[in-house]
Amino acid sequence: MATQSSRAAARIMMAPAVFLLLVWMLVPLCMTLWFSVRDYRPLRGGDLGYVGLENFARFVSSSSFWPAIFTTLLIVGGVLLVSIVFGVLLAMLLDQPMWGQGIVRILVIAPFFVMPTVSALVWKNMFMDPTNGVFAHIWRAFGADPVVWLTDVPILSLVLIISWQWLPFATLILLTAFQSLDSEQLEAAEMDGASPLARFFFIALPHLSRAITIVILIQTIFLLAVFAEIFVTTGGAFGTRTLTYLIYQRVLESQNVGLGSAGGVYAIILANIVALFLMRIVGKNLDR
Amino acid sequence: MARAVSTQRKALNTAIAWIIGLLIFFPILWTILTSFKTEAEAIANPPVILFFDWTLENYGVVQERSNYMRFLWNSVIIAGGSTLLGILIAVPAAWSMAFVPSRRTKDILLWMLSTKMLPAVGVLYPIYLLCIQLGVLDNRVALVVILMLINLPIIVWMLYTYFREIPGEILEAARMDGAGLKEELLYVLTPMAIPGIASTILLNFILAWNEAFWTLNLTSVDAAPLTAFIASYSSPEGLFFAKLSAASTMAIAPILILGWFSQKQLVRGLTFGAVK
């Protein structure tokens, strides 16, 4: 089917997309690499010359580096844990016969469409506010002192907010996987006397493994870059500074572009390690 | 599931699922309800849930104070423009990769996806600087282009997976019946591709609408979309719950409605059909 002329036509049709993405990738990347080896401070005279790998060393040895890495891992890990565990349970529930399934599904999925700035603000003010928030009302109803969420348990609060946004995604994908589960196999196992727990662990869970991997990988990519939620809730205070946020502060707030760019290079490396795994899995799917 | 399920069991499932569904939806519901309250009722303790004097006052105040319509218009332009531009570039690319595959097609696809892994924060300053140099900081066209580039890999991938599912036999059958290239494209391929293109458009519009990192950092006044409009409520002044709720409702309503229509495509779109 592919003749010489259709190949040529295909190349021309692909060219704009390939060219644009190449430029989009290379230009900023090269600039970031360039800045990362220079002492570049726009507010203090601009480019102050070549400094070698000093920025890289300074970024890693700064007192905020490891806490930022730790916070990033806590948030990513926490949200993943919540969305996988509850995603599996929710998907299992939604897969059962019930009345109004379509409506329940819509209710569960809705948070995914809420823009991150809105969801962070609504949670911060209307739920986590220590005097007028819904949680404060509930705590007081039980005679307890309201929790000052964003200062007392900042990471937990952020994990809660971000999980609320990402649980729908995990649920939706796991539900799709559940629906393709072979019910005959389950019935056969049931007849052979396998307990519901055994059926879950030995049949359902292995069947879901592919979907779970995809949820983990896609969410990790997005969660490593979480920004808006921190921007409008704590602004990076109270130990909620992730690697992304730390770089953002270095570059835009303290206007130390060289240092921030070195951080950016680290972030790019980190994301690409994660991406490598993603590519393998998605790539396998292409061969099907 | 072909198994018969007792009504009792079904009722129990229904009850649990509805309770959990409503719990998850509650923040959105609460925001919408609060937007119709007066400020006093919005912070009443204990909270009033349904029996309050419904008012539209907050919506009026929000519009008056910050010109909601301008932000909305920016969101529509930026999300719509970037989606449209992306589709125009991606359709030919995905089309040729799906129908004229070569040995390198897979590598190109994977490479395209890899640009998605470039953390935005890592390249923020270069883009920021370029925007200043080109005089397009806080400019809608610049955001259209940037968001288009961010979503382009996803658009190409989605379209590719959709196009690949168009069976080649149908094409051959059409050719046997004497269809030329024009008929083939117009009457055979296009009708089969339209549903895929439509859901790609929908999903990318949603992604662009909600994108916050670039819009927050590259806009201030002229090109600021709803994501930035809402962020302006993060100041202590925004602690007026009813007004914050009205603003939030106005920001999410269009996309919530659109999202509900596209939920079926969402799974395929976001996982490139890897989960069936």
Characterise the protein shown here.
The complex is a heterodimer of chains A (288) and B (276). Chain A has helices at residues 4-36, 54-61, 65-95, 101-109, 116-127, 134-141, 149-152, 154-179, 183-191, 196-224, 228-233, 243-253, 257-286, and strands at 38-41, 46-50. With 288 residues, chain A is mostly helical. In chain A, strands 1-2 form a two-stranded antiparallel sheet. In chain A, α8 packs across α10. The longest helix of chain A has 33 residues, at 4-36. The radius of gyration of chain A is 24 Å and the shape is globular. The two termini of chain A are 20 Å apart. The model of chain A has no long low-confidence stretch (mean pLDDT 82). Chain B is an all-alpha fold and 276 residues long. Chain B has two domains: 7-59, no CATH class; 67-233, MetI-like fold, CATH 1.10.3720. Chain B is built from 13 helices and no strands. Chain B has helices spanning 7-34, 39-42, 57-66, 68-99, 105-115, 124-133, 140-164, 168-176, 181-210, 213-218, 226-231, 241-261, 263-271. In chain B, α4 (68-99) runs parallel beside α7 (140-164).
